Amino acid sequence: xxxxxxxxxxxxxxxxxxxxxxxxxxxxxxxxxxxxxxxxxxxxxxxxxxxxxxxxxxxxxxxxxxxxxxxxxxxxxxxxxxxxxxxxxxxxxxxxxxxxxxxxxxxxxxxxxxxxxxxxxxxxxxxxxxxxxxxxxxxxxxxxxxxxxxxxxxxxxxxxxxxxxxxxxxxxxxxxxxxxxxxxxxxxxxxxxxxxxxxxxxxxxxxxxxxxxxxxxxxxxxxxxxxxxxxxxxxxxxxxxxxxxxxxxxxxxxxxxxxxxxxxxxxxxxxxxxxxxxxxxxxxxxxx
Amino acid sequence: xxxxxxxxxxxxxxxxxxxxxxxxxxxxxxxxxxxxxxxxxxxxxxxxxxxxxxxxxxxxxxxxxxxxxxxxxxxxxxxxxxxxxxxxxxxxxxxxxxxxxxxxxxxxxxxxxxxxxxxxxxxxxxxxxxxxxxxxxxxxxxxxxxxxx
Lengths: 288, 149
Known about the structure:
The complex is a heterodimer of chains A (288) and B (149).
Chain A: H1 4-59, E1 77-83, H2 93-108, E2 112-118, H3 120-127, E3 133-137, H4 146-161, E4 167-175, E5 181-189, H5 197-204, E6 207-209, H6 212-287
Parallel strand pairs in A: 1-2, 1-4, 2-3
Antiparallel strand pairs in A: 4-5
Chain B: E1 7-12, E2 17-24, E3 26-31, E4 34-38, E5 45-58, E6 61-75, E7 78-83, E8 86-88, H1 94-110, H2 114-145
């Protein structure tokens, strides 16, 4: 059996671990809230753009080629923007996204697939697979702005419009609530406008400057941009909440371990004292 | 509708709500085809914006903002500006804006390809809007807002 000193040392080191995991839990909780706030701050913009596109798509003659971002083609080549975290200690978050993406490629894409990796974990995984990495973005800012994500948007849009790929998808984790984050793959390009009679009605009497076509063509890339941005925020909210939960579990486990160790420590100490007392008693008896 | 309607103004970017105000009298914005002035009871309008100054007038109060591209929408006396980037005048750092302008000018000198020239011109335009606005803020109101020199 371990000596009391060894046990004391373990108790101390596990005590330190709980301090760290508890601090990380609190930091993640704060970051998660911040990510959620950012999502709602961005919603006014994206909702409006979505409605305008829905309305305009119904009213405008969407002839072939006039709106490159709306062009539907048979998907022979596709690229997937995979959003994972740079750091670990977030439970199954990253492996879920990666597994989901791999399944999506296997089941839903017939052609060649390229990967655009956002986040170190996804990059490290897909580097070892047969799928070519078109681009990788790691160590982005903690809170990437739309400006920071523009290179990603540019690659997605230019690969699609040049015909290098026929569809672009985004794989990330959807933040449902603190306990549930769901990996998902969504289509980014071509944009599929939701034709909406109500939106159409709303837009019908508008004066458009310079023209309906120019406005629609201006709105589409912004829509792509804000969708990537929101997907990133969703991924961040998920990352932080997954890490928060993982750290809470770690703290709980450490506390259980602490209880066990304390119990063992007391038992060992008691045994030791008993042994000592009986030795002294035996010695006294022998002398007497 | 009251006899004397006013405008409700919202300026949002993809990242945040930059500005929100009720009872506004007039909005002046840099439209793609030239400056736009929006008064109450304006017809429903959706316009592209270029980079420039946006002015919101409420009574005697004027708020100036820099916007860099985006869209402007007017419906039922509600003006919504979906800006690519927008900054309130007090958020602009004059020295930084000036330095950015010089950098952009230098970049324009060195630019050789069409893409580079385009990019340099765009950033020069942005820098000019910023530094002009920043300078104007300091100018007429210098005596109230901060000591001169």
